[in-house]
Structures are given as C-alpha cells and as structure tokens.
Amino acid sequence: MITVTKKRYFLSICCVMGLLTLFSCKESSLLDKRVYSEEELYRPNFHYTPKKGWMNDPNGMFFYNGYYHLFYQHYPDSNVWGPMHWGHAISNDLITWTEKPIAIYPDEKGYIFSGSAVVDLKNTSGFGSLQNPPIVAMFTYHNPVKEKAGEAGVQSQGIAYSLDEGLTWTKYEKNPVVKFPSVKDFRDPKMTWDNVHKQWLMVLAAGDKTMFYSSKNLKDWQLLSDFGKNIGAHGGVWECPDFFPMLIDGSDEYKWVLLLSINPGGPNGGSATQYFVGDFDGTTFTLDESFSQDLKQHKSLWIDYGRDNYAGVTWSNISETDGRKLFTGWMSNWQYANKVPTEKWRGSMTLPRELKLIKAGNHFRVSSQPVKELQNYVSKTIKKEVLKIEKKTVLIDKSLIDLSRVDIRFTMKNLKKDVYTFSLSNNANNTIHFGINTKDKYFFIDRRKSGDLSFSDVFAKQISKAPFTEDFDKMDVRILIDKTSIEVFYNNGQTVMTEIFFPEKPMETFSVIKENFNFKIENLIINQLKFN
Q1: Which residues, 6 or more positions from 143, have their beta carbon under 8 angstroms from its beta carbon?
Q2: Active site residue: 32, 57, 93, 208, which one?
C-alpha cells in the first residue's frame, strides 16, 4: 500500500520526468527549427564580400609589394545597384581579404564604371617616379544626366593615378582620355603591357565588338583595330573584355586570349564570359584557324558554364617568377543579382583561379583551377582510396566535416552511358544536385530544390548544362563549397560550373547515386578549410 506522502512524491517525480522529456523534445524541435542569422547562413567563409552595400564586377586588379589589390563596382549606400564607386580590398594570399576605404568616387563627369589598373614601373605616364612608380587606373565615366536626356557621349574613359600603392587616387585633370565614338555602349577598358610589341595596350567593349588601342604614356591613346562582329555569342551586349598572351601549357609557344563577358546570352541564361584564342601582330587580333573551326561547331566557348561567374578579368603585374595568369569573376547573374536574399550586402567574388591554355590535339581550351594558396587553409583531411558505388552512397556528412567550407577532390572510373548525380542536402529538404549525364553528354547543376527560390522566377527555372562531345570512362572532379556557393571543376578545370544557392540551414550530407551501372570513386580527398 502506498501512503499519501509516497503517492505525492511518486507523482512529483513523474511530473518532473514528463516535463524534462517534453522540454527535451521541444529543445530538439527548436534546434531543428533554429533561425540562422544572415551572417551565419549566407556570408561566405572564403569568397570576398563587402561588409555592407552592393558589389558587382571586379575592377583594377593588380599585384604590388606583396599585396594583391581587388577593386570592384560598389554602391555603399544600398544593397542594390546604384551610383558606382570603386570599392577596394587587399590580400597577401588571394584568400583572406581586408576591406579598405572606397578608392574612387563618382563626380560631375559621372559614375565610375568598370576598368583596370597597371603598375607603371618605368613611369611612362610621368605621374610618379622610378623610385615610386604610379599605379594608373582607367575606368568608364557613365554620365546619368546625358543618359536621361537621351544625349550622345554617355560613356567615355578617364584615368586616375595613385602614389601610395592604390590607397588614394588623383583623377587626371584632362579626362576623358578616350572620348566616345558613335556607339551607345562604350566601356570597361582593360589595360596591359604588351611586352612582345613594347606598347601599352587597351581593349574595351563597344556594343557588339571590342576595340583595341595603344599608348606610350597611358594618357594618349590611338585606335588600332576592332574585333568580334558576327563572331562568337551575341545574345546581349559585350562587356568587361580582357586581352593577354599565354604560353601553351607544357610548351614555349604562346597565343593571345581574349575574354568577353556578355549579358544576356550566357549558355544557361543571363550573364556569362566567353573566350577566343588567336594571334596578335601588335595591331590586329586574328582567330587561330583551329579555334575558328571550333567556334563553327560550338558557336561559343565559355570560361564557366554555370550561371554565376560574370565579368571576370585577370590581375596585372604578376611577376615573371610567379608566371601565373590569375582570374576572378563576380559570382552572380544580372537576371536576379538585385534580388538575392541578402540584406546587409549583396554580391561576392568567385575564388581566384589560375588560368591555363591547354592544347589537346588541335583544340585550344582555357582551363581554370582554384589558386594553390587555398591549400594553406586546410585544417583536416579525410581520405578514401576506393569506393564502389552500387546504390545511393553517403560520401560524408556533418558528423565528420563541416560542409559549409570544404574542398573535395576525386576521380570517377568505369563510367558507362549513365547519369551520375551528386547531392548536397540537409534535413530541411533542401538539395542541390550536380553531376554528369554521359548518355546525353552534358554536365549539370540542378538547384530547383536548393532552398529559398521566392526572390526570382528564373533563378531555378531550369537545370544548368555544360555540353561535351567526347566519350570517356574516367573523370577528375574538384568541388569547392562555401555556404551558398558551389564551384565544380571537371577534367582539371577544362569545364567549370559555378552557381549560388540559398538553403534554409547549412548543408549536412554529401552523397552520390548512379542510375544504372556501378562505378568507382578513387582517391577521394575531403579537405576541411579553416579561416579565422
């Protein structure tokens, strides 16, 4: 028989245990439904973003005295595009960036649109000295008053110089240095020193073509030639050109490479960057004959087939001892860039990449890979030598690795005509799929279930594809994941796809499934990245 006192004690214990169980369930439920801050969920770990405000095209990138300088289109007073300034950040390793004060402000001549910067080591401009070489920037002035009035001369090219390594700038008193021709879109000058022909070169976009100029002093420019009408992709306006010689990988022969961004008209809609390979005689750029034949077959060739790598250009003044051609692009797309679900800031850059010019058979391709400096941030490595994929296989999950900052590499073998799908997912039912369809011959990214899609009807309207023509039974793959972005490099970076996504919570599982045939994954290396 239980006494009243014992009954009360027994009931109290039951109530306490019940409350603890209820609290435990609620706590678990609350953890599952945790509300993440914008910084936690969306601010990248290792891709550059401004502290606040809007950012788009990379501009004026140069290396000097141990620092890489990144300038960019910036509107500090809003998270949508507006009166353009040049923002500024520096890094000594291309990975960790320090934001500096705004470099160049708009003025009575107009907004400061995209452009470039060079280190004038021989002081050809006369702005500095041999002991203190000036940094000279060229940018597009965009006059909104003339644009609104429908007048001519909306865009012209101005220059500015810096004598303190890019921290402060003085605009040239005789701007503009290149006045408008009879074209509406006339912008984005990219300067380089042509060591072959001993001249300063500048290429800029002019509607449906590029225009080449030369100079001896960076102030007085002469038109040389133009290129591009009815060549390559023309679904939109050409923008943000870049032009430089590159050694063919593994040889002493070189070719000239021309990068051209286009909006719209990309391979998967909206913005993208195409390239051309050829020869330059100091005046005229001519397509290589084999590349011209490739264009007849493919129509256009792209630096990145994903939807989120635009306006990319290269760093100037990279030393000959380094020898790399370093590139970065804006990681967004004009179809939805003003609407993505970040509020404090909008816009990020791709991870800087090393470009190489590959010649396979009689075909030229520009490949890209993440810069080697990323390896210095590896804090943990998981390796698996061989995995036989016979059904859906989880390759790694959050119990072993943080999938919001990871670098993954592996080789796929025994590939047949099949569909091989990799997935990043979480328990909020957010999933981004990507992989290879060897039956219909394309790489793909599918973000239709990747999280928040409410901000745009076109963000995830279709699967992004990168076509290929050859058959293969082996493929090298590298994947960079940084919270809300994925960069996939196939075949040592000869095909690249970059896309952003906005999950409701961090991704937790990385898995793979094949449609029919078993295959193997070899040399799986998963590197956890750590940043202060």
Answers
A1: 109, 110, 111, 153, 154, 155, 156
A2: 57
